[in-house]
Write a structure and sequence with these properties.
The complex is a heterodimer of chains A (about 90) and B (about 400).
Chain A: H1 4-8, H2 44-55, H3 64-68, H4 73-85
Chain B: H1 2-6, E1 18-22, H2 26-38, E2 43-47, E3 52-54, H3 59-63, E4 73-75, H4 77-81, E5 85-87, E6 91-95, E7 98-101, E8 106-108, E9 111-114, E10 118-120, H5 144-155, E11 161-166, H6 176-191, E12 196-201, H7 209-219, E13 224-227, E14 237-239, E15 244-246, E16 251-253, E17 256-259, E18 263-265, H8 268-271, E19 281-282, E20 296-298, E21 303-304, H9 312-330, E22 340-349, E23 352-363, E24 366-369, E25 375-376, H10 383-405
Helix pairs in contact in B: 2-9, 2-10, 6-7
Classes of the chains: A mainly alpha (about 90), B alpha/beta (about 400).
């Protein structure tokens, strides 16, 4: 695993604290075998649209409907932009 | 590597100093690796006597015969590769700005993180001693105890009575006893169908209760009985000599007994002066500094985290927030207010998963649920939904352990 990977894709000092828990389920290390979708490097608009759909009860998620409701619009935009800029670690 | 990617990089004033972390589980190992990823120049030491960590999440599946204990075990190699100094000793005290080890060695710190998990409260249940736990395992710290309980279940005759007891709140992994009773029921149903299983509970309500009870009625009718507090479920003493668990109303003689006893923060918390009279550690909700000793952070199961449950997911999430807060403090800045998530998966059967989730923020000095968010899986979901949550549970375990141990 490459620790330097994180630093190379640095976020701003006031980066989105709401994003820190997501990697408990959404893998960021390449070798992890999981059916849970990855977020790193996905277009920000795609992540933000999914979160807003989840809030509205759309897309039939399992747990994400319950989690998305804890985020404000600006928080969603911030974490979507941040994940879009990240790359999976080896 | 996950902690690094998930944590905002602090670009301005550099944090310098020594951080010592006690405890190499989900909280401690995550915190150590995240600190090095954020600020490679920090001197980070991890104190953990056990070279192999045995994870509690999914250890109930080991009891149910669905997994092997080796699949639960992780080393600190990834933590060392991250540049953390690992000391394989036990921390026994904190003297000023120094951690004292059982070897007599001393580690100086600028910030100390205690992540000691739980200890069994050996004075919490009459008759339940360390010797008793060799006959009536708790298996609430995974490892040898898990293997012991599984062997006892495997050795039991078909038709035997398994008796479990669950403690009052708070304790590690609130849905854990109910997942365990489910997976032991699954084992008995498939391997020893004449057997019975009784869960004596010191509570009348528990996590994901309706979901568990609906599943039990569907999957394990006549096999599994839950006895709540109001029906005399509270175990007041145990006797390993005749394998009995006593309530105020009855004695239950078990072929196999699993006593989940009262718990408290790991021993070092009391020695360091960060545990209160409850046995747990009060912390403030932004950087998890002890309310009793602000230069010490406490994270994971040992800490009182408001609405957040004592879970591996919570421990990992808190550890990342704590690492960012420490880097901020060492650079002379105030930490930013965090948002945290918890998601707990439970298996009721191999292809039947259920979840509880929450989103949290500091509110009036405590981590509180963000209103409108969180909750449990729908009660009326089809089997396909349960199967998907069971599949995600396995993915979650592989992810969180990679996230924690590298």
């Amino acid at each position: 695993m490459g620790l330097s990977g994180g630093a190379a894709h640095a976020a701003s000092p006031d980066g989105p604290f709401g994003a820190m828990s997501c990697s408990g389920c959404h893998a960021t290390a390449r070798g992890v075998d999981t059916a849970i979708p990855r977020l790193n490097g996905r277009p920000a608009a795609e992540i933000a649209a999914a979160m807003r759909d989840f809030q509205k009860g759309e897309r039939a998620p399992t747990v994400m409907g319950r989690i998305a409701k804890g985020y404000t619009d600006p928080e969603i935009d911030a974490l979507a932009a941040w994940f879009a800029a990240q790359r999976d670690a080896p | 590597m996950v902690g690094a990617l998930a944590a905002p990089r602090i670009a301005s004033a550099q944090a310098v100093g020594r951080v010592v972390i006690v405890g190499g589980g989900f909280a401690g190992a995550t915190c150590a690796r995240t600190l090095k990823a954020l600020e490679p120049k920090l001197a980070v030491s991890l104190i953990e006597p056990d070279p192999v960590f045995t994870a509690c999440p999914f250890s109930n599946a080991v009891l149910g015969g669905l997994r092997e204990i080796a699949q639960q075990q992780f080393t600190q190699d990834g933590v060392e590769r991250a540049g953390v100094t690992v000391a394989r000793r036990r921390a026994v005290g904190v003297d000023g700005k120094t951690v004292v080890l059982d070897s007599g060695a001393r580690f100086q710190f600028d910030r100390l993180v205690l992540a000691p998990g739980i200890d069994i409260n050996w004075s919490g249940l009459p008759g339940y001693t360390e010797a008793a736990a060799e006959k009536m395992p708790h298996a609430w710290k995974a490892g040898g105890q898990t293997v012991l309980l599984r062997r006892q279940l495997e050795a039991m005759d078909d038709g035997g009575l398994v008796v479990m007891s669950a403690p009052a709140n708070p304790f590690r992994c609130p849905p854990g006893p109910y997942e365990r009773v489910s997976l032991i029921a699954h084992y008995l149903k498939t391997k020893k169908p004449k057997s019975k299983l009784v869960l004596l509970d010191a509570k009348d309500a528990f996590s994901k209760q309706r979901l568990f009870q609906d599943a039990w009625a569907k999957l394990y009718p006549g096999l599994l009985e839950w006895v709540p507090l109001s029906k005399g479920g509270k175990v007041v003493s145990v006797d390993p000599a005749d394998m009995t668990l006593a309530t105020d109303f009855a004695k239950h003689k078990a072929a196999v007994a699993n006593v989940i006893p009262p718990q408290r923060a790991g021993r070092i918390a009391e020695a360091a002066g960060v545990a209160d009279r409850s046995g747990w550690c009060p912390v403030e909700p932004v950087s998890f500094e002890s309310r009793l000793r602000p230069d010490i952070h406490v994270i994971g199961d040992a800490a009182i985290m408001g609405a957040m449950p004592k879970s591996a997911f919570s421990a990992n999430a808190q550890a990342k927030v704590c690492a960012v807060a420490i880097v901020a403090r060492l650079a002379g800045r105030e930490p930013v207010e965090p948002r945290l998530i918890n998601t707990c998966y439970s298996l009721v059967a191999p292809d039947y998963g259920i979840t509880i989730a929450g989103v949290y923020k500091p509110t009036n000095g405590q981590l509180a649920d963000i209103p409108g968010a969180g909750g449990v899986s729908p009660l009326d979901a089809p089997q396909e939904f349960r199967a998907r949550e069971a599949l995600y549970a396995e993915g979650w375990f592989r992810t969180i352990t990679a996230e924690t141990f590298g």
